[in-house]
Amino acid sequence: MSPRHASGSVLALLLMVNLTASSTRAASLLPLTLQEVLDSTRERHPGVAAARQGLATADAELLSAEGGFDTLVKAKGTYVPFSYYPHERLDAAIEQPTPLLGTRLFAGYRLGRGDFPVYYGGYETLSDGELRAGLEIPLWRNGTLDKRRASLSQARLRREIAGFTFTGERIELQRQAAYHYWDWVAAGQQLRIAHDQYELAAARHDQLARRAEAGDIPRIEHTENERVLLERDADRIAARRALEKAALKLSLSLRDAQGEPYVVPASRLPDGLPVPETALEDSLDAWLERALRGRPELRELTLQRDVLQVDAALARNQAAPAVDLGLSVARDVGTGPANLRPTEFQASLTLDIPLQARAARGQRRAAEAKRAAVEAKTRLARDKIATEVRDAVSALRAAHERVGLARNAADVARRLARAEFTRFEQGATHLLVVNQREQAAADAELKEVKALMDYHHAVVDLLAATATIEPVSP
């Protein structure tokens, strides 16, 4: 590469880095949105990472259950050099359980050489051994269901349960994150109100001093303003501390690219709390339907009931007689006695009848009792969710009404404060009354901020209660 090309590449790289850094700085100066907080919570919150391990555990348990259908290899060798019947034997087999009606496939190889007593004549094979293959089919017990298939079915259900558990924990973390966000925005507005009140007193402090020196007003008016200035400065410090505390709480949900808490600066505060034009339009029935359809707790309980149904079905199955059909074929290869040359077909029927089956009956009763308990919990969970949704809708409507009243009250209080100050300038009132009017206006503005914060909290609660929490950023 020529020096000119090299310098051009370096220049392009530096330009790219500068552009990237500029875009990052520009993004860091933009107002923080709820969308950004929720995205950070979903992607980088340690609580989400911990909850995700539940999915990994369920995946591992599912893999373990699938291991019930692993191919099994067995082999055994016997060598008897010192005996009246010296001989050697080798027996190897491959078994494959299948989920198809509990059928088990097998194939094997057997070799027997040497001298065998008459009662062990079945050990003898031709010179190259015996090949065999076959299958076993359960006709009654373990036909429709067995322990392997039950374990696999339950592991799959538990994997789904883990998914809904993860969803529920993530919803709760997002709800907390949204709460912290609106608390932080409200704290910023409270600091603004405290700062504005301080600036009012500070702006007229020198003017009042000059008027008192000139004898236009009593000196006590200037002293009254000095008292208020100190008080409002203390309020401003307290509001600043409240904002810092809110930012620290928010940092638990807001993470940087490395997953570390990000303490957002006050420069990223939005202009204010969004003012709702109307309450959410959906009816209570629509919210209830959405909650009962989407809440992960109900889905978890339904799946837990299915797990117990598998337990009960397996217990009923284990109480039934076992009737197993076996089919196999075997053929010796090589040289040796003529009676070992023909191909051998074999069919067998095994019968196993549990006369009392107390273990299976006890397991079935336990599973049915647990399932009844889960059904009762499901009814209770549905009632709680319905109550939670009704309460959230009620809180949202009340908060919406309070916002309108608080805005009107704050507007009236501000007009009264301005009018009282005009009267003071005309000598018709005292500064003490002006300060009282201004404090009343500040209190009304704080109540307006509180009403707006409660409204947005109510929105978050309703969206979380219906499992539909979505970003509602200003």
From TrEMBL:
Keyword Phosphoprotein: no
UniProt keyword Transport present: yes
UniProt xrefs under SUPFAM superfamilies: Outer membrane efflux proteins (OEP)
Top-level taxon in the UniProt lineage: Bacteria
Gene3D superfamilies documented for this protein: Outer membrane efflux proteins (OEP) (1.20.1600.10)
Gene Ontology cellular component list: cell outer membrane; efflux pump complex
Localization (cell): Cell outer membrane
A Pfam family: OEP
GO molecular function (one): porin activity
Key words, A-Z: Cell outer membrane, Membrane, Signal, Transmembrane, Transmembrane beta strand, Transport
Leader peptide range in chain numbering: 1-26
Primary localization class, coarse: membrane
PANTHER family: OUTER MEMBRANE PROTEIN TOLC, SLR1270 PROTEIN
Family to which the UniProt record says this protein belongs: Belongs to the outer membrane factor (OMF) (TC 1.B.17) family.
Name of the protein: Outer membrane efflux protein
Species whose genome carries this gene: Cystobacter fuscus (strain ATCC 25194 / DSM 2262 / NBRC 100088 / M29)
